[in-house]
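Incident log, structure service

09:12 report received: a user says their structure output differs between two submissions of the same chain.
09:20 pulled the input from the user's history:
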Amino acid sequence: MSRIGNTPIPLPEGVSIEQFNHSITVKGPKGELTRSLPARISLELEGKVLHVRRPTDEQQDRALHGLTRSLVANMVEGVSKGFQKVLELYGTGYRAQLQGKKLSLQIGFSHPVEMNPPEGVQFAILETFVPTSENNYLSCRIAISGIDNEAIGQTAATMRAYKKPEPYKGKGIRYLGEKVRRKAGKAAKVQK
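09:34 re-ran on a clean worker, output below:
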């Protein structure tokens, strides 16, 4: 009994679903997404509610049931509302700059790191901060948005991997709200 797989997916106004063989196309106000589904899992549309069904209670069918329901629900939410992840740059002199669609990051290397967004993903610089006594290292926030949740998550993970937060000063790229466990630095020697 999969609680996730059995949960129906309500279709918002303006979202339509087309099913052909083992692929599904979801169209909405923000765009269109297509995905191939496992052959054993079926979709049933009843009015404005979509149900995901599995043929048996075998272990693989149960696993695919919840996965398929989550993927289709993310597609429906993406074409109706869209998704966004926010990353923060922490570090003295760290900065981001948009050059057309391309994002250029200055993150402590001798060269800028340039990222081209995948298709359907957009970059935006939300805020740029001036260092103050309370906020010494936060330099800017970058938003990654689009309709494909997987592409946004992968782009954010790739960007964060360029400079993960280090544990002593917390410098690096982190997700909005991410807590970095800090370590104590070297202790000063005490004279006897």
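09:41 both user submissions now match this output. Likely a transient worker issue. Closing.
09:42 reviewer note: The mean pLDDT is 89. The chain has three helices and 13 strands.
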